[in-house]
Amino acid sequence: MSPRLLLLRHGEVASHRGDVPLTAEGCAQAAEAGHRMAAGLGSVRLLSGATRRARETAEGVRGGLAGAGAAVAGPDVAFALRNPDLYLAGARVDMVSSAEAFAAQVPWLGADDVLAVPFFRGFLGAPDRIEWWLRSDDPPGDDAPAVAARIVAFARSLGDQGTAADTVVAVTHSPVLRAVSLGLMGEDPGEPPYLQGFTVRLGPDGSARAEAFDPFA
């Protein structure tokens, strides 16, 4: 049996430009979320994506869980929790908010080169960039179904762990959460609030379903 999986968005950041830390409020949100979740999770394994905001959120959640008496292992970084893989001029790039920030990840390109690529020009010009990616028929890399399938495979693998846990709490990012919602619930809810997300459950036949999860509710 696989443990229950809780996917959470990271805590508050001042901007999404670069690998930024949490704000003071974001740190407090993470600790409070952990404290509030502690009673109903049993033993917990804590995982996060590799970004600073995801790792700092996981540390805050751990503090809140441990402070409330929960048994917690981790946090550890899980590769599956990364943002979608996109490719630009053969390089894997993170979703960022400007042509200059994309170009900074591919040293031989400039901002004008980025904007010459139809996908990136459309992405950067969209009012809701993540929605634009979700609806894209042919992104240069992961599409939304691929990210949802990655998370389902990740959830199935959690039953392989040597040290059993009742619940895995996994801190990730908005594009991952929105892809999971679209893939498993059939709808995109828009940007999820910080420290909210989804419970992912697996059926006996390996099927997956998701439902909204709010530790503050």
* N/C terminus separation: 27 Å
CATH fold naming of the largest domain = Rossmann fold
Helix amount, in percent? 25-40%
Task: Please report the number of helical segments.
Answer: 8
Determine the mean pLDDT. Answer: 93
Can you tell me the residue ranges where pLDDT is under 50 for at least 5 consecutive residues? none
Structural class: alpha/beta
Q: What is the chains' assembly state?
A: single chain
State the major sheet. 6 strands, mixed
- Per DSSP E runs of 2 or more residues, the count of β-strands stands at 8
What is the CATH architecture descriptor of the largest domain?
3-Layer(aba) Sandwich
Coarse shape? globular
Cα-atom Rg, whole angstroms? 17 Å
Whole-number tally of structural domains: 2
Strand order of the biggest β-sheet: 3-2-6-1-7-8
Give the CATH class of the largest domain: Alpha Beta
Order of helices and strands: EHEHEEEHHHHHEHEE
Q: Beta-strand percentage?
A: 15-25%
